[in-house]
Amino acid sequence: MNLIERVKSILLKPQETWATIESEPADVAGLYTQYLMILAVIPAVCGFIGMSLIGVGGFGFTMRVPILWGLTNMVVSYVLSLVGVFVLGLIIDALAPTFGGQKNQIQALKVAVYGSTAALLGGIFTLLPLLSILGLLTALYSIYLVYLGLPVLMKNNPEKSIAYTAVVIVAGVVVGIVIGAVSTLFAPRGAAMFSGSSDAPAITMNTPGGKVTIDTAGLEAASKKMEEAARQMEKAQKSQDPAAIAAANSGAVAAAAGMMGGGQAVAAQSLKAALPEKLADLPRTGFDVQDGAALGLPTSQASASYGSGDKRVRIEIIDIGGLGQMAALAMGMGQGEKEDQNSAEKTWQENGRTLHQSYRKDGSRAEFKTVLKNGVVVGIEGDRVGVQDLRGMLSQVDLNALEALQRKPKG
Question: Facing residues of 302 across strands?
Fold first, then answer.
């Protein structure tokens, strides 16, 4: 299957394309690696660039989401979008008999995956947040695609397609709300990110910002875990046990993370060990260490605060792992400089690392971030500290050692 041709055909000739898709052999791994995982990069990366690098505002005022927060949201939204499409497929499959259709989990997943095409491509509008409303139009077209695909793949009564589509969309909105709630678990200050690395075959995409490789090691095993997660979710829904439902949802998130081909994250305690007891003349006033292993996710994060008088500095280290390339791409696409009478910022690449700095000219605020070659993100920000002073303080953190940290493969 040619990705570009499939995108064009499903958008321009949906009825004929659904007939072709209906007869195609497919499995979870193929649908994800050859299609969904690639298109899902668009809204995730464009959203990060739009909110963290370009910003939104007017009349001389611009608001941006802090870089590390933006990276966290980018990775989490990417992985949870994969979960959301899978759950939508389960809903389509479960509802099929109600509307005179035939249950078939793979065919239902095809509807969810290919039906999402327009909405995923619409993610490009998030590059300019003020145009993000246009993404709603592409989402409406995705609803139309689902409407056309249901009777072809699920064999439902065509006369019931409108009702079938409406129920699926309502259920999908509920899923979106639940996923939004789950994403808050990874909000700032708990900003763990998904990781992974492997020498196995991978998908490589050429982009304006360079090559992006999506690791597919262990994907077949991960897809089986997704199928098992689906069975557990269906069983939990029948039992109406809140604890079982929560556990099943957590399992689906973990399985989706596994589809990224990632291994175990660098231990959070190893990240904590890189945080100095004292930063220049500022004592450490506190630290925060979080490990996603408790949620079944390959994540880790450590941060520390330093301060004395009106000076406040915070260092945060996050293990992004296998999605570090995606983070570096997003920041790399935003390379450049921007300056006005109040502030200045710059994003560039140096020795294989992506760097970003920003500061207010009155010296009230500054930050410096770097994405290391292995995907670990290190950031330092401070009040009443200049950006050059921050970079000097960051030299106390052994970036080479962090870059050399190895991840264990999944057991």
Answer: 289, 317
